[in-house]
Task: structure prediction
Amino acid sequence: MTAYQKTTAKNLYLSDPSLTYADIAKQVGKTPRTVERWANAEEPSWAEQRKQTAEQREQYAKVTSIQEARQRPSNPRPVRKLTGPIDELQAIDGAIDTLTLALRAGDETPANSLGGIAGGLCKLIELRRKLAPPTAADLAQQVLELGLTPTDFVKELREQWANRSA
Result:
C-alpha cells in the first residue's frame, strides 16, 4: 500500500502546485513529515520536478501558440491580384526587406526559424545579384568605399583577368 500512497502523493504534488505536504498527507493517509521525506528522497526532488514540469508546460504553451499562429493566415487582408508584368527585382527587393525586418525583430522568434530566415535571405541576395549583376558604376563605388586607389584597382583587375584567361 505504501508504494501506491507514495505514487499518489507524488502525482498530487506535481499536478497541483497549491497543495501542501499536509494536504497531500491527509489524502494518502500519512503524516506531512512522511510526505516531505518522500519528496526530498528522490533525485531530483519533487520540488525540482514540479519546477521542471511548470517550465515544460510553459514551453509547450509557447510552441502551441506558435503552431496556432502558423495555422492562421499571416495576412488576413484580401490578396490583390497583380495585373501586367511582374518586376522580379522589385519582388525580390521587397522579400529581402521583409526578411531583414524579421531578422531584426527576432527576439520573439525561435532560433531555428531565425536560421531559416537567414538562409532564405542569403538565397534571395544571391538571386538578386544574378538577375541584376553590379554595374561598372557600382563596382567603382565599392572600390572607393574600400579606399583603394585607381592604380591598385587596375593592377588587381589585370591580375584577375590574367588568371581567368590562363
Remarks:
- The mean pLDDT is 79.
- The radius of gyration is 31 Å.
- The first helix runs from residue 2 to 15.
